[in-house]
Amino acid sequence: MIEIGKYNELKIFSKTDIGLYLGDGIDNVLLPTRYVPVGTEIGDQLEVFVYLDNEDRPVATTLKPYALLDEFAFLKVKEVNQFGAFLDWGIAKDLFVPHSEQRVPLTVGENVLIYVFKDEYSGRLAATSKWNKFLEDTSDLIAGEEVQLLIAEKTDLGFRAIINNTMEGVLFHNEIFEDLQIAELRRGYVKLVRQDGKVDLRLQQEGYKHIEEAKFIVLNQLKQNGGALALGDKSSAEDISRQLKMSKKAFKKTIGGLFKERLISISDFEIRLLGPPEQAL
What we know:
With 281 residues, the chain is mainly beta. 14% of the residues lie in helices and 37% in strands.
């Protein structure tokens, strides 16, 4: 069965003046001529995105939409009228956000975080900026687990982030040591799943892997700066965060390890490689 709002792997069954008819043995759908790849033959398999056109007929495209059904994404508002807002979806048809599905009124030109859903009455795909109601349970998450994060919005506590396109967590300000941008996709880690289901996140790994990653960052910076770095044992947390994107605690632990390995020397406001820079890594 062909899935609306998803990618479908379909076989080409026939060719007409307006395009190709593709199918899965049960349903057929038109792929308009302008989207047909050069050299395509009857019997070939194509991966296409299927949606409903303005007359609610299924149609296929080889263009890649910015979001699929049941996904979160930031999309740009192209038009607003008495019915709602229309978002740039990356395909021929814009994605509709009814006024009733807008958390706050949308304006042309803004980028808004939405969730793509299927209207249960019409079967049409639509979007909502009231995405909280589509967040899933977090009970299956495990502390230390690597996850994909979509940075959703900034709050007094930190940044809300969508986890693996299904759940929500928070990155707290006091554990962020680099600039984060709204709509940015980042790798992150689960720090804690609370009893109420809320999730604390972090951008760095904990334990041995984090230490090794921090060592690589410091040594790489030393190599790029000719073997010296204007950061040391008494440097401020702000200077360390700005240059290395890590906390002062992590920095001191890292340079302490490198010192014990006899790779660097440490002074109050500088660290230096003990060997040639080209041998740092």
